[in-house]
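Q: I'm writing a short explainer about Gamma-glutamylcyclotransferase for a general audience and would like to include a description of its predicted shape. Could you first generate the structure from this sequence?
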Amino acid sequence: PGRVVTLLEDCGACTWGVAYEVRGEQIAASLQYLNMREAVLGGYDTKLVKFHPQEKDAEEPILALVYIATPQNPSYLGPASEEDIAAQIIVSSGCAGHNIEYLLRLADFMRYFCPQAEDKHLFSIEEALISILPCLYYTEESLEET
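A: Of course. Here's the predicted structure. Afterward I'll give you a sentence or two in plain language.
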């Protein structure tokens, strides 16, 4: 398993991201898939939270379903230093791709779509990962130099 963005319950915290609206026939299929992936297999709890869209015309928050990590989950890795998380990301991949791409795309998303959110933790992990990457790639020239 690799590292993924994990929501931890914190009543005073704010999380930035994307909400997807599902309607009609999509609701049952989406909930069945997500509940299996996140709750049954993933060990997450479901919660309804207030989601505040960025659009100026949105008057009221929308109720959104989120999946909250629980430390009881056997795959839950818990807190670690940014360097340790970056080292874990470098050697991890899953059915959706490599963790390196996951982290870099997430950091880009946050910069582009949520520039007002300062996620120091995320960007510190990205920085640690980028500092490790050159150490993993070498050529015959670099081996001859050493």
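A: For your explainer, you could say: The chain has a mean pLDDT of 84.
Q: Perfect, that's easy to follow.
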